[in-house]
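fold-stage: in
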Amino acid sequence: MWQVYLSGEIHTDWREQIIRGAEKLNLPVQFSSAVTHHDASDAAGDVLGKETDQFWRDHKSAKVNAILIKTQIEQCDLAIIRFGGKYKQWNAAFDAGYCAALGTPYITLHDEDIIHPLKEVDGSGMAWAQSTDQVVEILHYLTKDQ
């Protein structure tokens, strides 16, 4: 069973598209992801005490979220890192760098119009996909004999 971590953009249904595609082909893949509900992610550190300064609220929440993210990246066989066009996904770039440092293969998923700003991220990745269908086809190829 392949463990695939889905990282990045949270404003479209790209994760669900990949999951549905893998299920349709009955691929031996399990998916994990960071918390994708924006408000819940932003509030992850609130349990540690109320903050009046936004920096410290974000700081605590980022650290709590990092427990989940680091664990899932360290346990995955492959990461899919999605960069959308509307927002800058600094967290996704960080996840790609962490994968590269660990030697964990990753595939980037983004449109052609942001190739240049992602050249280093793409350069360390194993593939650049432009659609979720391409990602599913790669997963199919990787798991076809398992």
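fold-stage: in (second)
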Amino acid sequence: MKTILVTGTSSGIGNQICIQAAAMNFRVISVSRNIEPLKDLGGIESFKLDITDKDSVDDFVTNLKNRKIKIDILINNAGYLVSELFSETTYDSFKKTFDVNVFGLAEITRSLIPIINIDGHVINISSIGGVNGSKKFPGLSAYSSSKAAVIALTEVLAEEYQDGPSFNVLALGAVQTKMLKEAFPDYNADTKPEDMAKYILNFAINGNKLFNGKLISVSNSNP
């Protein structure tokens, strides 16, 4: 049985990845600040964790190591999105965005790499808004710049870990999630979380056979 670890699983895409992976008989480890939505579902082991808290991340990974758990797939899905015009942003709003989207992602990845199998696959979830040359939208200066950082980080990690595991980054277009609705109440995306989750899970299982260090844009709109 292969083991998949997913961050940011309380709702939306991460939640659906866990449900679909459990249905495929993966051993699923769910990591989120809110474990209530998944805690009673079979095949899913839920951990309450804030990935921006280094001590908590260390304790979590130590728990996995002590139980001799090895990871086959890591999906770094946890994210933070707020819509603010640049003139209205603050140091704190930029810091909170980067803490979750970049620093927390880097911390949990660095901590988990020793227990990720050599032929494993790490998927970092970015945004089409972080892709160089894509159309940018007002209010997303912090979010888009943080997601651009995730893309560059992934490319570097693929170089540093050429003996494995593989690292790839998916730049997602708009998906109708709770996070999107809170940031843009009047916007309705065409893509549902369960459909995007299905694509991500399939890529996580098969994508490292052909790709490493690659940015894949997953959007039904033009840049």
